[in-house]
Amino acid sequence: MLKVILIAGARPNFMKVSALYEEVRKYPRKINPIVVHTGQHFDRRMSHLFFHDLNLPKPDYYLNVGSLSHAQQTAKVLERLEPVLLKENPDIVIVVGDVNSTVAAALCASKLNIPVAHVEAGLRSFDRTMPEETNRILTDAISDYLFVTEEAGVRNLLKEGVSRNKIHFVGNVMIDTLKAQQKKAAESSILKELSLQEKKYALLTLHRPSNVDNKESFLNILKILETIQKDITVIWPVHPRTDKMIDVFRLKSKISPLKNLKMIPALGYLDFLKLMADAKFVLTDSGGIQEETTILNVPCLTLRENTERPVTISMGTNVLTGQNYRKIISESRNILKGKGKKGRIPPLWDGLASQRIIAILLKNCSQPR
Ligand code: UD1
């Protein structure tokens, strides 16, 4: 039996772990999966709803780390995961994405000489002010299996001196989950609940510290939204970090006069997927949403200066706009005139990435260490 520990910590991890868990479950005699939730994201909307929507099992271990400073959060995962790894002595630890729990779990396993697989390896924004960039670089440097979603990731890793035989271009597990859940999401009643019609609204998400933790940037984005909401209704499921900053910066009085900008609480996976699929376009600073809109063929304006997911631009529906007022308004008006960017599906984003990953692990890790 191959004992595999899957680490889940924050919201964008859950759809990736779900794809891997579904695949692992196909081998009950060969693989023993153990799910560890670090508790980086902990509340109903950021965590439980996702476990429910994605049919994920109750975690075998819950580390209850919570929201803390970067150092404290990373340290707490290290401290609380170590006894679990010592007790379970897994054959491999699988970490996904680029959040603090990812790097902490990889480091913890690596120090115990437990092989680490990083799913979504090789992505680089080349922007070290982004906390996730440090997490990506460090996680890749100590991982034994680097599972890559797009070709740029392979190039980045080779440039950093990673040996070719550790790198596996397998596609995108988040797309596996999207494809698996698309039918179920189509049945969501969220449009009805919000009195929306297909393609008659734009969808907005914001949570990057560079956009919401800086008052000037946040105000700048609100100015852009003030114009957009005059053209089309904008639905805004609000991330808890953003919610907190709206209070800190006292922005409620600036937002409430924008009658066509509709704030709603953060949503679960299925409702959000439905809203995204039926949106006229999406405005976001998320990483994963750039990829999901590409698959759904929905135009995406990314309110960032860079992206670690360049294939969403070269092949997909994504356009990087930063916070450039003119660019965002002209792009959104183009989309409203039916001239939005049309995309193609990137190589290997076919719903089979987790199959490829588990096949590689079964082949390579089954020998005793
Ligand atoms: C984290 C990830 C980021 C990812 C994002 C997705 C890191 C460095 N960042 O950022 O890469 O894109 O998750 O959501 O790992 N909060 C709650 N309930 C929760 C979780 C958070 O209320 O369940 C609030 C807390 O007030 C907290 C704030 O949100 O201070 C930010 O949470 P945190 O996990 O520190 O970072 P995110 O911005 O969510």
Can you describe this structure?
The protein has about 375 residues and is α/β, with parallel strands linked by helices. The chain has 2 domains: about 1-170 and about 350-365, Glycogen Phosphorylase B (Rossmann fold, 3-Layer(aba) Sandwich); about 185-335, 3-Layer(aba) Sandwich (Rossmann fold). Helix content is about 45%, strand content about 15%. It has helices at about 10-25, 45-55, 70-90, 100-110, 130-140, 150-160, 175-185, 190-195, 210, 215-230, 240-250, 250-255, 270-275, 290-295, 310-315, 325-335, 355-365, and strands spanning about 1-10, 30-35, 60, 90-95, 115-120, 145-150, 165-170, 200-205, 235-240, 260-265, 280-285, 300, 320. A 7-stranded parallel beta sheet has the order 3-2-1-4-5-6-7, with helices on both faces. It has a 6-stranded parallel beta sheet with strand order 10-9-8-11-12-13, sandwiched between helices. Helix 6 links the parallel strand 6 and strand 7. The two termini are about 15 Å apart. The structure holds uridine-diphosphate-N-acetylglucosamine (UD1).
Key structural traits:
369 residues, alpha/beta, Rossmann fold, six-stranded parallel sheet, 17 helices, 13 strands, 47% helix
Kindly summarize this structure in a few lines.
Helices cover 47% and strands 16% of the residues. It has helices at residues 11-24, 44-53, 70-88, 100-111, 131-142, 151-159, 173-186, 190-193, 209-212, 215-231, 240-248, 252-255, 269-277, 288-296, 311-314, 325-336, 353-365; strands at residues 2-8, 31-37, 61-62, 92-96, 116-121, 145-148, 167-169, 201-204, 233-238, 261-265, 281-284, 300-302, 318-320.
